[in-house]
Amino acid sequence: MIDYLEEILEKQDYEQSSIGMEATGLYWFPLHYELQSNERIKKWNTRLIVMNPKLVESFRGAYADVDKTDAVDAAIIADRVRFGRGIAPHYIHDDAYLTLQRLTRFYLHLTQQQTNLKNYAGSYLYLTFSEWIRLKPFSDRFSVTATKLMKKFKSADDMANMPTDELRELLVDFSRNHFRNPEAKAEELATLAEDSFRVPQGVIDSVHFLVKQTLQQLELLDKQLTRLKKRMEKIMKGINHPLLSIPGISHVTAALLIAEIGDVFRFPNEAKLAKYAGLTWRKNESGNFRAEETFMTKSGNVYLRQAFLTAAQSLINHNDEYKAYYQRKFSEAPRHAHKR
Length: 340
Description:
mainly alpha, two-stranded antiparallel sheet
């Protein structure tokens, strides 16, 4: 390809070349990396333009009834490059940030899988132990004690048939004597078991099998997430980012943010960074009308947006100063207070 481009450039005597490509997944990156580091490409004063696929797709709307082929796609990208307006230089992370980004994005992928599996387990468990799900006897439904109980008892009936004293001993053993009042917790569980709906035995056997399978997957995910956290923490110690000076921001939370932001000074102000993350709200005005309720754009970097929301929740939970600020803003919002 480089031979072909060089032949055209020499024949036409062009002073500069522009190569446009869509940032589709990671398919563009090896090509971009090769072109960026190629001396022959540099010699021709080449601009490498990486575009958001949305930018190209909206430009395609100007063409009536065009086919969807590789050749047509290339022509539309080339025309978009020629048009020029609205194309900003694409920022490419340094190697350190790119390395971290691969880890953080996989971390977010695993946490999403973890959430999905917990939802599945909860829906399964509702069939065999409805009141456990409805009244939540444990603050963490998937704590060590709760997980051991889910594995041991097939259904609410099995737990209801166990004497309260034996259930109390189980709780003491499973929790390593964590509960202040294991007798009360045992009685609570026994009551929930008695009050739960009854389902056929065949359903109970199948559901219990699925619950155990789901719990095994969750245990594997926990191990993978632990290894990922250690790897990210190791990289973050080498970066020593000022975000880590904020109480409530862990190495993992900081890694999620800076892996997507990279060099923060590439953004001229906080509004540009918010737009990049999709944490902005569209205006809805017409004449004297101005809508009070507007919606988040969500058109930016979905990983960065998720990282910001994760960081915000962490600060609310672990930082008194930010918690007070959140509560003040919460009281000011007329609608959707938490989201605002």
